[in-house]
Write a structure and sequence with these properties.
Layout (H helix, E strand, L loop, with lengths): L3 E4 L14 E4 L4 E8 L13 H18 L7 E8 L5 H11 L6 E6 L9 E8 L1
Parallel strand pairs: 4-5
Antiparallel strand pairs: 1-2, 3-6, 4-6
């Protein structure tokens, strides 16, 4: 497992969710994951119109890609989350805090006007294995 060091300073705002201000990854190989939507791998369709179910499926898809590369969720150093409604920020944080092990990776969350296939949530990651 690659060592990752969490960076925190009181001279910048504290994280407002399950993420770290920054992460330093040492050694290993870097994996840049494309965005994952809440799509069912068997059908290619959204799992449902429910945002929580889409978030869970997107993280499941992300997990499978990371595992295929020889890593795990613990190896994530940076996540970028895309939501079509920041009103769902609490749901996303809740699911993420359940699934992503501490210490949390760095993270950005962006509200977008639309996502492919009408998705409500997308996640991409940088992973060091």
């Amino acid at each position: 497992m690659t060592a990752k060091t969490i960076v925190h300073t009181d001279k910048a705002p504290a994280a407002i969710g399950p993420y770290s201000q920054a992460v330093v990854a040492e050694g290993g190989k870097t994996l840049y994951l494309s965005g994952q939507l809440g799509l069912d791998p068997a059908t290619g369709a959204l799992v449902s119109d429910n945002v929580e179910e889409q978030v869970r499926q997107a993280f499941s898809n992300l997990t499978e890609v990371i595992n295929a590369a020889g890593g795990s969720l613990e190896n994530i150093v940076k996540l970028t989350l895309f939501v079509t409604d920041l009103g769902n920020f609490g749901i996303v944080n809740s699911v993420m805090s359940e699934l992503i092990p501490e210490p949390f990776p760095a993270r950005s969350t962006v509200e977008v006007s639309g996502l492919p296939k009408g998705g409500l949530f997308e996640v991409e990651a940088i992973v060091v294995i």
